[in-house]
Amino acid sequence: MQQHVIPARRRRMIVGISGATGIIYGLRILEVLRSLDIETHLVMSKPGERTLVYETDLKVRDVRAMADFSYGDADVGAAIASGSFRTMGMIVAPCSVRSLSAIATGNTDGLLTRAADVCLKERRRVVLMFRETPLHPGHIRAMAQAPESGAIVFPPVPAFYDRPASLVDVVNHTVGRVLDLYDLDAGLFNRWGGQPEATPPAAALARGDA
């Protein structure tokens, strides 16, 4: 009897870019996922498109070209709006307070928040790179409610034990830690091993230690 071999399907990740500052995180995630051969499905909110203009020299079409598939936020009939469309989950990078609140309460207002809500109801991982500071009690309540709904709130707080030498190093460390939550290792940063690394000569000179 002839056996039918089902071809392996590429793993899929949804990436949402909302209107908070820090669009560099979403862009870097798209780059790294492509290098890992993860099929990416991008949705940008209108405020996210506006932030792109403020924070980069890229056009919206440039960002859409970084993903395998892209959708407008008004396209609530897109594939990623259905639970039958299987994915690894979703990363919202950056995540505005409005998006976080909508996702936390299930009060979706567009494809970005709908896709996140679908992932949560299907028990898939959703990471929200929440960008807001300082925080008032309403923000904090929403941040507490999001994990109750199944999401992971991951503010992009930089770590310095790796002694970053550039903004790229800072972004890579945070992106690498986010991807760890999906068991994806792109080798973006040096992992803590219990002992500090030797101080690079350039860093010592910058501090005046040499």
How does this structure look, described?
39% of the residues lie in helices and 15% in strands. It has 210 residues and is α/β, with parallel strands linked by helices. A six-stranded parallel β-sheet has the order 3-2-1-4-5-6, with helices on both faces. Helix 1 (23-35) packs across helix 7 (167-180), helix 4 (97-105) crosses helix 5 (111-121) and helix 4 crosses helix 6. 36% of the residues are buried.
Structural class of the helix and strand makeup?
Answer: alpha/beta
Rg computed from alpha carbons, rounded to a whole number of angstroms:
19 Å
Number of helices: 8
Report the average pLDDT across residues: 91
Q: Biggest sheet, open or closed, and with what strands and sense?
A: 6 strands, parallel
Spatial order of the strands forming the largest sheet: 3-2-1-4-5-6
Low-confidence stretches: 201-210
Helix content: 25-40%
Order of helices and strands: EHEHHEEHHEHEHH
Descriptive keywords:
15% strand, globular, 210 residues, alpha/beta, 6 strands, 8 helices, single chain
Helix and strand topology:
Blueprint: E1 12-17, H1 23-35, E2 39-44, H2 46-55, H3 60-64, E3 69-72, E4 89-95, H4 97-105, H5 111-121, E5 125-130, H6 137-148, E6 152-153, H7 167-180, H8 201-207
Parallel strand pairs: 1-2, 1-4, 2-3, 4-5, 5-6
Q: Could you give a short description of this structure?
A:
This protein has 210 residues and is of the alpha/beta class. The protein has helices at residues 23-35, 46-55, 60-64, 97-105, 111-121, 137-148, 167-180, 201-207; strands at 12-17, 39-44, 69-72, 89-95, 125-130, 152-153.
